[in-house]
Design brief:
Layout lengths: L26 E8 L5 E7 L5 E4 L4 H7 L19 H17 L2 H5 L6 E6 L5 H8 L2 E7 L2 H9 L3 E4 L12 E7 L8 H11 E12 L3 H6 L13 E2 L2 H9 L3 E9 L11 H16 L5 E8 L10
Parallel strand pairs: 4-5, 4-7, 5-6, 7-8
Antiparallel strand pairs: 1-2, 2-3, 3-9, 8-11, 10-11
């Protein structure tokens, strides 16, 4: 079963037509790709905001099954060699600290009180939560993967296993919410933005990192390293990410990109290390990276934001 551009469709609920999940404009199919479950998925592009989305979207039950077993234990382009290992933790913390520096996090947190609360959505085993705890924050995390959450809890981290949309959190209780390489996995990002705007304090921050729909994605097409279906359901340009979040009172403050398309290897030779360093720096400098990191501020309800 293949999807072609002839399957492009306009908004029409009565005809069960497909539309952009972010802005409601029509979509057209770019190409198809076989998923990790051997099904064929269409990659659709919005004619309005440029978002890429995957069709058909798996059910909640199907998605939950994707993040068990080998996903966290077998090194592939879709998962991790051993997510709970010290090596993976070290790599995640390195990227986390680099992103926080570039987001001016350390300058911002100086103005917060002594009780600072952060929620990491898609926390897995809680490596980021643990880092925040070690740096004076009260950290919490939530993830759908029971095995990873259990590992984090065994390290005395405050983690929740389940759906963020139905797990109770107090309104205006967090200074910071983070989604590190998580939003692309979510079936309903808009509902996450809505809920995040409720649990963040006015003026609180949202940090997001996700696959960047830019030069490398368009140049490499089906071979792009982050085109992992059906695990990844959405691919954002800077504008589509900014506009979708803004509908819920979350205003983008800054963003940057990184990553040249060269995925880290085990035991790389010197030539690969040199090439990756050079190309990564070029991608970052010219805003061509295939990952994007962004900071959003939760605007007060009186500002006219649409969050309810």
């Amino acid at each position: 079963m293949l999807f072609t551009s002839s399957e492009s469709t306009k908004i029409n609920d009565k005809e069960n037509a497909r539309v952009c999940s972010a802005c409601g404009n029509s979509v057209h199919s770019l190409f198809s790709k076989e998923g990790s479950d051997s099904s064929i998925y269409a990659i659709e592009e919005c004619t309005g905001c440029g978002l890429w989305q995957v069709y058909p979207r798996p059910t909640a039950e199907e998605l939950e099954k994707l993040y068990t077993g080998s996903y966290f234990h077998a090194r592939t382009d879709r998962g991790y060699a051993d997510y709970a290992s010290e090596a993976v933790k070290k790599s995640i913390v390195y990227t986390l600290e680099k992103n926080l520096r570039d987001l001016k996090f350390y300058d911002w947190e100086k103005n917060l009180g002594s009780l600072k609360k952060v929620l990491d959505i898609g926390c897995a085993a809680g490596h980021a939560v643990e880092w925040f705890n070690q740096h004076g924050w009260c950290g919490e995390g939530i993830d759908v993967a029971p095995e990873m959450v259990a590992i984090g809890k065994s390290r005395n981290l405050k983690l929740h296993q389940g759906d963020f949309l139905t797990t109770p959190f107090k309104s205006h209780s967090f200074d910071l919410v983070t989604l590190w390489a998580s939003i692309e996995h979510l079936p309903e990002p808009g509902e996450f933005f809505r809920r995040i705007s409720r649990i963040l304090k006015p003026g609180g921050k949202l940090y997001i990192s996700t696959c960047h729909l830019g030069f490398f994605a368009r140049f490499q097409g089906q071979n792009w390293r982050y085109l992992n279906v059906p695990e990844h359901l959405y691919y954002f340009t800077k504008d589509s990410l900014r506009d979708w979040a803004s509908r819920y009172g979350l205003q983008m403050q800054r963003s940057f990109t990184y990553g040249s398309g060269l995925t880290s290897r085990e035991n790389p030779d010197l030539m690969f290390k040199f090439s990756k360093t050079v190309f990564d720096e070029m991608a970052r400098h010219f805003h061509l990276g295939d990952m994007i990191v962004a900071e959003f501020e939760n605007l007060p309800a009186s500002s006219g934001a649409t969050a309810t």
